[in-house]
Design a protein that fits this description.
Blueprint lengths: L9 H4 L10 E6 L3 E5 L4 H10 L5 E5 L4 E5 L8 E11 L20 E6 L4 E6 L11 E3 L11 E7 L3 E12 L3 E10 L8 E3 L4 E11 L1 H10 L3 E2 L5 H11 L6 E6 L2 E2 L13 E2 L15 E4 L6 E4 L6 E7 L4
Parallel strand pairs: 15-20, 17-19
Antiparallel strand pairs: 1-5, 2-4, 3-4, 3-5, 6-7, 8-9, 9-10, 10-11, 12-13, 13-20, 14-20, 15-16, 15-18, 18-19
C-alpha cells in the first residue's frame, strides 16, 4: 500500500476490510484488459483496479497469481470459461483498498499514485489508451492482449495473409503503440499458380492423362478454384501469352456461352470464337457446349462436355 498511503499513515496501510468482493468462479474477460501483473496477491490486484482509470473489474488466476485489470469493452466483453480464473466487479470491493487514491480521478491511460517527496497525489502514465492498429491480424497471447507500458503482444496474421516483420505490437512509454509487422494478402498462395496484376488473375495450367470437361472442373474445385473465366480481352490476351505458342487444346470455364462467374460471353470475342454447339468428333451428341482454347485461327470453341477428353485444363483461383 506504500504507493497510495503516506509512510506514517498506518490506518491507510491497513484498511478495515470485511472480506473480498463478489467473485465469479471459472470465468474471465478475454477482452478489455488494460494491465496484466504477475505474482500479485488478490488484494493488491483489487487495489490496482481502484487506482487505475477505466478499470471496472479484475481477472485473477490463483495458480500464477496473475492479475488482469479490465475495462468495459465498447463492443461487449468476451467472457471465456476458464476453470483456473475468477472474475470480480470492482464495485463489490471496499474502496478503502485504494488508500488516499480512493476518490482521486485520473484521465484515460493513467493511474493514481502518491508522490513520496511531497505526499501529494498524482496521475502517472500506466497503459496505452487505445488498441493497436493491427489490420488482418489476431492476438496470439494465451490470455489475450494487455496494454502495459513497454510490453509487447504477439500477433498472427489471419488466413490468406502473410506476416512481414516481427510479430509484435509494443505499447511504448508514455502510451503509444509501435506495430512491428504488416499482414499482406497472399495472392496465388496455392502451389504452381501464376498471378497477373493487370487483370488480378491467378491461373495454373494442369496436365492430366485425359479429362472430360466435368472432370476438369472437379480438378480445379479440389484446388479451391474453378476452370478459368475470361470475361475481357485484356484477360484473354494474358492467358494466350501465358499458354505460349506451343499451347494444346485446353479446357476452360465456359459452358452454354456462360463463364463460371455467371457472366455471358462478351461480343468482343466474336472474331476469335466458334461457339456453335457442335463437336465434329461427336456429331450425334447434344451436350457440345463446353469451352476449349484450341490452337486455331478461331481459338475459342466449344466441344463435347462428357466424352471428349483433353489432357490440359486451366484453373483459376478467384481473388476478392
Amino acid at each position: 500500500m506504500n504507493d497510495v498511503c503516506s509512510a506514517d499513515d498506518d490506518t491507510c496501510k491497513k484498511p478495515n476490510l470485511s472480506g473480498v468482493g463478489m467473485i465469479e468462479k471459472g470465468k474471465c474477460s478475454k477482452t478489455g484488459v488494460l494491465l496484466r501483473f504477475h505474482h500479485l496477491p488478490l488484494l493488491e490486484c483489487a487495489k490496482e483496479c481502484f487506482i487505475t482509470s477505466q478499470c471496472t473489474s479484475i481477472n485473477y488466476r490463483q495458480n500464477w497469481k496473475l492479475c488482469d485489470l479490465v475495462m468495459v469493452d465498447p463492443d461487449g466483453n468476451e467472457i471465456d470459461a476458464d476453470p483456473s480464473c475468477i472474475k470480480s466487479d470492482i464495485t463489490t470491493w471496499k474502496k478503502s483498498l485504494a488508500g488516499k487514491c480512493a476518490d482521486y480521478k485520473c484521465a484515460k491511460g493513467k493511474k493514481c499514485q502518491l508522490n513520496a517527496k511531497d505526499n501529494e497525489l498524482q496521475c502517472v502514465d500506466a497503459y496505452c489508451k487505445d488498441l493497436p492498429p493491427t489490420s488482418n491480424a489476431a492476438i496470439d497471447e494465451p490470455f489475450g492482449l494487455r496494454r502495459n507500458l513497454d510490453t509487447g503482444n504477439k500477433y498472427k496474421c489471419k488466413n490468406d495473409y502473410k506476416m512481414e516483420g516481427k510479430p509484435f505490437a509494443v505499447c511504448q512509454s508514455p502510451g503509444h503503440w509501435k506495430v512491428l509487422f504488416t499482414c499482406t494478402k497472399v495472392v496465388c498462395s496455392a502451389h504452381g499458380y501464376t498471378y497477373d496484376e493487370a487483370t488480378n488473375t491467378c491461373i495454373k495450367l494442369v496436365k492430366t492423362d485425359g479429362s472430360t470437361w466435368m472432370n476438369a472442373k472437379s480438378t480445379c474445385k479440389k484446388e479451391g478454384g474453378d476452370l478459368v473465366s475470361i470475361s475481357t480481352m485484356k484477360k484473354w490476351n494474358f492467358i494466350i501469352r501465358y499458354l505460349g505458342e506451343n499451347r494444346k487444346n485446353v479446357w476452360i470455364g465456359l459452358k452454354d456461352k456462360k463463364w463460371m462467374t455467371g457472366e455471358d460471353i462478351n461480343s468482343v470475342f466474336d472474331n476469335i470464337s466458334q461457339l456453335n454447339n457442335f463437336d465434329p468428333d461427336y456429331e450425334k451428341e447434344t451436350d457440345n457446349t463446353c469451352g476449349v482454347i484450341y490452337r486455331s485461327p478461331k481459338p475459342l470453341q466449344d466441344a463435347n462436355c462428357n466424352i471428349q477428353k483433353y489432357k490440359w485444363l486451366l484453373c483459376e483461383l478467384l481473388i476478392p
